[in-house]
Amino acid sequence: MSLSITTLSSSSKGNSIFIGSQTTSLLIDCGIPLSRVEKSLKVLGRSTDNLNLTITHDHSDHISGVRQLIEKCKATLTRDTQDFTVGDLLISPFKVPHDIECYGYSVHNKKAKISVLTDLGEVSVETLKRISDSDIVVIEANHDERMLQNNPFYPTFLKKRILSPFGHLSNRDCAKACLTLAQSGVKQIILAHLSESNNHPELAYQTVVDYLYSHGIVEGEDVKIEVAGANKMSGLFQVNTQFS
Length: 244
What we know:
Blueprint: E1 3-11, E2 14-20, E3 25-28, H1 34-43, E4 51-54, H2 60-63, H3 66-73, E5 76-77, E6 84-86, E7 89-96, E8 102-109, E9 112-117, H4 125-131, E10 136-140, H5 145-149, H6 156-163, H7 171-183, E11 188-192, H8 201-214, E12 224-227, E13 237-239
Parallel strand pairs: 3-4, 4-5, 9-10, 10-11, 11-12
Antiparallel strand pairs: 1-2, 1-13, 2-3, 6-7, 7-8, 8-9
Helix pairs in contact: 7-8
């Protein structure tokens, strides 16, 4: 096993993603309580010892647990806009459009590459090129546009914010990005950061799968699509690389 990933939580109520090699543990965001982090890492056979941390952006659902993790567990926080290393992992940040300064990350280890981009209003051609050689991509599928527009509890200004190029990625726009990624050879895509008010896991999955199929890409054969759980861990996804 060269590199592995699991989402500890993925929703507007809390986000945290674990990426690890055999010797290095990295959290991207920590918007959940320390107790959940500890329990999740234990399931993975890891601990908070020597834990590394980086942050996509400063919204509370991504950083609410950071202080506790640093103060109680002495986790090492690195926030840099240039490439940096933790252990045997090379982390490459790239800026994504959101209503606050926000970054996606590609994590490299030997020949394996995992990319994470959540909380973004649109996916640029440049970003797609940057991550198209990834083995695994975590990408936002935040909302169904019709559900959002018809949601009586969301004011107009909030709907406009979410739908803007600096808001969140819809299922439809996510599907378009997934097509490019699948055509580029990405074999595993994880849909993340689903809105609990304006989306459903089945709807996000089916929107992406149907769009791929309409362009000749078959889920399960050409690419695998999974949906990250809102308040629970996903499965463990691994990139296995053979070396001579």
